[in-house]
Amino acid sequence: MAEIKVKLYDFQGKELGEEILDSKLFGVAVDPQIIQEIVVSQRKNAREVLAHTKGRSEVRGGGKKPWKQKGTGRARHGSIRSPLWIGGGITFGPTRERNFSVKVNKKVKKKAMAMVLSDKVANSKLVLVESYNLPEAKTKLLQTAFTKLPNKNKSTLVVTKSAEENIVRASKNLPKVHTINYGSLNLVDLMKNEYLVLNKELLKKVSEHYL
């Protein structure tokens, strides 16, 4: 297999050369079906169960029989909290006990990650920089740096190491720039953003984490 190479930039947009990438992570053939499977599972696992209806054992009242069993001419009832009554319990309604999570094979998940990263490289959407040379957490400094890099004015996902980094704080006022810790990198965020930006240190960490 041919070497997988990407251009290496400094944070001012100057080309410094090329970096060879691991083909096991950045040179994998894309299978849309596997990617879709992982994306769907990720969305299902992130789903919160909000709707909850009360059954007859949960609603208030109804401890006393509303009227005697015989002699009234009315239908017999044992509780005003029966699902037959207004204000009674709900039959087969949605509850918090529902579980939408889906189990995913770890190897398949890693393979899907490699496919998406490989697609970024193949389409020149991976921007590799020497380091995040941002002296202050200033939005203007980050915006200026990104206008000199290939991801200029495009939706960008920046891989970071710490939430306290200047680049994380500087990006908060840039609507097209999103940051993510290397350990939380996932398919949905990768696919929502056109470009992926990371430095050499984090390239190594991502490679170690997902290989």
TrEMBL record:
Q: Where does the record place the region Disordered?
A: 54-78
User: What keywords sit in the KW lines?
Assistant: Ribonucleoprotein, Ribosomal protein, RNA-binding, rRNA-binding
Compositionally biased spans, kind Basic residues? 62-78
Per the UniProt record, one Pfam family is Ribosomal_L4
Determine the domain of life of the protein's source: Bacteria
Cellular-component GO terms for this entry:
ribonucleoprotein complex; ribosome
A GO MF term? structural constituent of ribosome
What biological process terms from GO does the record include? translation
Q: Which family does it belong to?
A: Belongs to the universal ribosomal protein uL4 family.
Show the HAMAP family listed in the entry. Answer: Ribosomal_uL4_B
Please describe what this protein does. One of the primary rRNA binding proteins, this protein initially binds near the 5'-end of the 23S rRNA. It is important during the early stages of 50S assembly. It makes multiple contacts with different domains of the 23S rRNA in the assembled 50S subunit and ribosome. Forms part of the polypeptide exit tunnel.
The subunit structure is: Part of the 50S ribosomal subunit.
Q: What is this protein called in UniProt?
A: Large ribosomal subunit protein uL4
Organism this protein belongs to: Candidatus Komeilibacteria bacterium RIFOXYC1_FULL_37_11
